[in-house]
Design goal:
This protein is an all-alpha fold. The chain has 14 helices and no strands. It has one domain.
């Protein structure tokens, strides 16, 4: 049960130095994320466009439900980098898949040191297997591009609907999958991803340090994994409530008080909101877009998809 009086006291007594350091780590995380996404885009976009567009997507995710910000950033990037929308989409799918795989790995690596969550191991293994299988299938498709395209072309000759649904989209989608067959570039992407997760661990540690004098590294790594898995599925705008519940639940395993852990989770979420709002809002302004115009565009795209 959350003690709101103690929650307010905890917020007021938090070490502001570590809150500010955590904010700096959050900004560093966003900067590295830009390099990671640019690499997944086969360096066909500038770093500036990659960094600003990914923050536009995060801003829209914070406002719109069901992760519509991911669709928005694919659309925005297709305009900036002269890339096809369907060429950008695979980079986002691969990005999210790698995130889930690493989150599941972190979770499972700490699980032997944690008691009271026997069901969680099966869930993490299941997620990891699904992600690895999915990436494996994408790799097989990318390696057999010509065969798949020939099959799609033959199907298009038999069905006008199939031809209408695929067309140039399939070629563009395979262009986006090309990173899976480029060993050097894919390893570079994995390097940026690994650095990104190390910064995420640092970020969580700094924010936890603002509320706990000596946070245990086990708490940090376990919470990072649970937090990433907890918000993996589309949910409320910005995962409001879902994110906090995941972090509080993870830290409850170590017997930490809910009032303090909720203050930690909320402060970290608010800082993330503020940074993505400032950067993403600036980017939308520079692009001549607004939240209302993007919402209208996404609505039209959704309607066209249903049609």
């Amino acid at each position: 049960m959350l003690d709101f009086k103690k929650f307010a006291q905890v917020l007021l007594q938090a070490d502001l130095r570590f809150i500010l350091l955590g904010a700096g780590a959050t900004l560093l995380w966003l900067i590295i994320r830009g390099f990671f996404w640019r690499t997944l885009l086969l360096n066909k976009a500038s770093y500036r466009d990659s960094f600003l567009t990914i923050n536009e997507g995060y801003l829209l995710n914070n406002i719109l439900p069901f992760r519509l910000g991911e669709i928005a950033r694919a659309f925005l990037m297709s305009r900036k980098a002269n890339m096809n929308f369907w060429q950008v989409i695979p980079s986002i799918i691969i990005e999210r898949s790698l995130d889930l795989a690493i989150a599941a790995g972190l979770f499972l690596s700490i699980l032997p040191f944690v008691i009271g969550v026997p069901w969680a191991a099966q869930a993490a293994v299941g997620i990891g297997m699904i992600v690895i299988t999915g990436l494996g299938l994408f790799y097989i498709l990318a390696r057999n591009r010509e065969r798949v395209l020939d099959w799609v072309a033959r199907m298009g000759e038999r069905s006008s609907l199939m031809k209408k649904l695929t067309g140039r989209r399939v070629n563009a989608f395979f262009d986006g999958l090309a990173i899976l067959t480029d060993g050097r570039l894919f390893l570079k992407a994995l390097g940026w991803e690994g650095l990104n997760w190390l910064v995420a661990i640092l970020m969580y540690y700094l924010f936890l340090h603002a509320f706990f004098p000596h946070p245990n590294l086990l708490w940090v790594i376990f919470t990072v994994g649970v937090g990433a898995l907890g918000i993996a599925l589309p949910s409320s705008p910005g995962a409001i409530g879902v994110y906090e519940a995941a972090l509080v639940g993870a830290l409850a395993v170590f017997g930490l008080e809910a009032s303090i852990t909720f203050a930690f989770a909320l402060s970290m979420h608010i800082i993330s909101y503020l940074l993505t709002a400032l950067i993403g809002g600036y980017a939308l302004y520079k692009d001549g877009e607004s939240l209302s115009s993007m919402y209208t565009r996404l609505g039209k795209m959704k309607a066209e998809g249903k049609a």
